[in-house]
Design goal:
heterodimer, A: 249 residues, alpha/beta, four-stranded antiparallel β-sheet, 10 strands, B: 315 residues, mainly alpha, two-stranded antiparallel sheet, 14 helices, 4 strands, globular
Chain lengths: 249, 315
């Protein structure tokens, strides 16, 4: 085990009743790596993400981030260690403005979230960071709108901005392009591809072109277990992957 | 704050200051009562309107604060300068204990606060050797403030007004602060808040204690206003009325709970003078609010204003 590993997942399983949703999964993600996780519906990809980010507690196994053991840490503490994530189904603050969404994300891991005696407007840097993060995802002109008035695609963009503003060290993206039009997909793809290598990325993606175009390495999950892991070329050529994922031999 | 808002606050303040000049002591007393229950509704609304949790036990903090102050002053001759803070402390301390309710959400939160509230009511009612049982504690003296005895309706009204002005200014800062935004974030999506690094239960705990403190303050003002306290002050209807006031006036706003309190107590006073079923009338008004102005009087006013403004701009 090398200290340069951003994330170590060792033998993680998640059992729901009789169902092994995640079955003894081990991953070693190098710092700066772009790792794509693919697999058919129900393969356990999102459940695995939940186990790593802390939304769910794994039934067994252990997790560490940059060498720090985090298996027993609650979700908010894992975020403080440097995890950022987006959700498969947009999980943004519908009734708040875009600016307030980002300001909340901006104070999440700082002591400022406890400040009671000062208006949040007094923190100009929070507004500046919000704007910078919105520019990054191409949503700057929506800053004062209430999220419920944003389109589906714009909410996906905001979802990404929320994850980026906290300057995560490891970013988990759960199908960031799901439900987007081809041009919107292109935009998100380019945005992710353009992120600095200081951010390690794990991404679940169904679109094989996007997935294989972005990935350094690919992990294929099927029935909760890793069936193969390798470079995009190896994955494309792998017979078992062609069978379970592409439905062809 | 915009200029319009400053003007609004100025007009409101002048009107509030002028009340005793125009209203007799009966009406001044009623308005004082409206302000005190408005504060209780505001306390409830910190949880309801901002954090999204409906507490039905706030009468407990209100009542325990009132009882503590009353018992210390009446039975032990403790001066108000000690008894009033002691009441605030006792009510808030109970809030610290009852804040365990924030481990639950939704209907479970309502149920657990309901149960906790009943415990306090039951103790006050049954432990008569200490609380005076049904009769409560009577003849609570009004405090003397810098040589000024607050024994007339006018003097006491101004006292309540000053306390409220301070509390509302602080409340305004609180809800606009990062902490206040945190509560609205929890209401909107707790799962997202957790993934952004917030330990949401801690924020809710602190909010609940602040809210219990505000309810206790209302309780201390109430016992001085009423000069008497009995177990009714801790009863379930008081807790629910505070919730209804907040919703009727406009949940999540500062003025709303006071407007709701005004509508509620005003109606009760006015309607009960000629209809026996005054509770039914209030019920109908509440149902009408929920159906046609779900965001309360404040939300309704805001909608009308917005419509008029957009109508003017297209013309």
């Amino acid at each position: 085990m090398s200290a340069t590993h951003a994330l170590e997942v060792a033998g993680v399983s998640k059992v729901f009743g009789g169902l092994r949703a995640v079955d003894n999964v081990s991953l070693s993600i190098a710092a700066g790596e772009r790792r794509i996780i693919i697999g058919p519906n129900g393969a356990g990809k999102t459940t695995l993400f939940h186990c790593i980010t802390g939304t769910l507690t794994p039934t067994s196994g252990s997790l560490s981030l940059f060498g720090t053991e985090m298996t027993a840490l609650p979700e908010h503490a894992r975020t403080a260690l440097g995890i950022g994530r987006t959700f498969q189904i947009s999980n943004v603050f519908i009734d708040l403005t875009v600016l307030d969404n980002l300001r909340l994300a901006g104070v999440g891991t700082s002591g400022r979230k406890w400040v009671m005696h000062r208006s949040i407007d007094a923190y100009a840097d929070l507004g500046d960071r919000a704007l910078a993060s919105l520019r990054q995802v191409g949503l700057a002109d929506r800053i004062d709108m209430t999220v419920k008035h944003l389109s589906y695609g714009e909410r996906r963009q905001l979802e990404l901005a929320l994850a980026l503003i906290g300057s995560p060290r490891v970013l988990f993206l759960d199908e960031p392009c799901a439900g987007l039009s081809p041009s919107e997909r292109r935009r998100i793809f380019e945005l992710i591809a353009g992120l600095p290598r200081s951010i390690t990325i794990l991404m679940i993606e169904h679109d094989m072109d996007i997935a294989l175009g972005l990935a350094d390495r690919v992990t294929v999950l099927h029935h909760g277990a890793v069936i193969v892991e390798g470079s995009p070329e190896e994955i494309r050529a792998h017979p078992e992957v062609r069978e379970v994922y592409f439905g062809q031999r | 704050m915009s200029r319009q808002q400053w003007i609004g606050i100025g007009v409101l303040a002048l009107a509030a200051l002028a009340v005793p000049q125009f209203a007799g002591s009966y009406w001044t007393g009623l308005i004082t009562q409206i302000l005190i229950f408005g504060l209780l509704a505001l306390a409830v609304d910190l949880m309801l309107g901002h954090a999204g949790l409906m507490s039905v036990c706030h009468a407990a903090f209100f009542s325990v604060a009132a009882y503590t102050t009353a018992i210390l002053q009446v039975r032990h001759g403790v001066p108000a300068i000690v008894a009033a803070p002691a009441g605030l402390f006792a009510g808030t301390l109970l809030g610290v204990i009852f804040a365990m309710a924030v481990r639950t959400r939704g209907v479970y939160f309502i149920l657990i606060t309901l149960a906790l509230g009943y415990v306090v009511w039951g103790v006050e009612y049954r432990w008569s050797s200490f609380t005076g049982g049904d009769n409560g504690v009577t003849n609570v003296p009004r405090p003397v403030l810098i040589g000024l005895k607050l024994d007339t309706a006018e003097h006491f009204y101004y006292f309540v007004l000053v306390v409220l002005a301070i509390v509302l200014a602080a409340y305004r800062v609180l809800v606009a602060s990062p902490f206040g935004l945190t509560l609205r974030g929890i209401k909107a999506s707790e799962s997202r808040m957790t993934s952004l690094g917030f330990a949401t239960a801690r924020h809710l705990f602190v909010a609940f204690v602040i809210s219990a403190f505000l309810a206790s303050l209302a309780g201390v003002l109430y016992v001085y206003y009423n000069r008497f306290v009995n177990p009714v002050s801790a009863s379930f209807p008081i807790s629910v009325e505070a919730v209804l006031m907040a919703i009727m006036g406009g949940s999540g706003t500062i003025l709303g709970p006071f407007i709701g309190s005004g509508v509620f107590l005003g109606l009760r006073n006015w309607v009960s003078s000629f209809i026996e079923f005054h509770a039914a009338v209030i019920g109908i008004v509440f149902i009408a609010t929920v159906l046609w102005a779900p965001e309360g009087v404040m939300g309704f006013a805001r909608r009308v204003l917005a419509r008029r403004r957009s109508g003017a701009s297209t013309r």
